[in-house]
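ARCHIVE CARD
Drawer: 12
Card no.: 0347
Subject: one protein chain, sequence and derived structure
Cross-reference: see card 0346
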Amino acid sequence: MSENKEIWIALACKNSYILNLAKENLNWRKTPKQIEQENNERENNTKEKVCEKCKQKYLEVENKLGCCNYHDGFLFQSSKDPKFWEPLEDEALINALKADPKVNDFGLKYICCFENYTSQGCKKDKHSQQNDHQQNYYDTFVSLKRLKASCKM
């Protein structure tokens, strides 16, 4: 006659890999919430996304460090006097110039590396759904502009 015994184990582990390995080896039952979470994660990894930094399509499963090349600074018109450098925010103009890379009458460069607007990104990272990398340069630029304006008074 076979008896059903309950076996209790207390497991405290910071390393998720070791914890998951122990759960698999002990045939640990997953809660419905864990199963749903795994299914959502699996679906999320195979869903095609668009990177906000480099605008390329990618799969999360293939997303590795160095896959994304981008500039983390804004475009500015270097043909102007440096006192008048400002972020170029005219998307229509930027897209028109990017469509015809031979034209660079405006001297557009990225503030992060001073490279031409047609250059490949100066930063390498993983693809991302968040686009907050340019905000740091823009905030610094606005702060310097305010400081400069306050010094003139």
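Annotation on reverse: The chain is about 35% helix and 10% strand. Strands lie at 48-50, 57-59, 68-70, 75-77, 108-110, 123-125.
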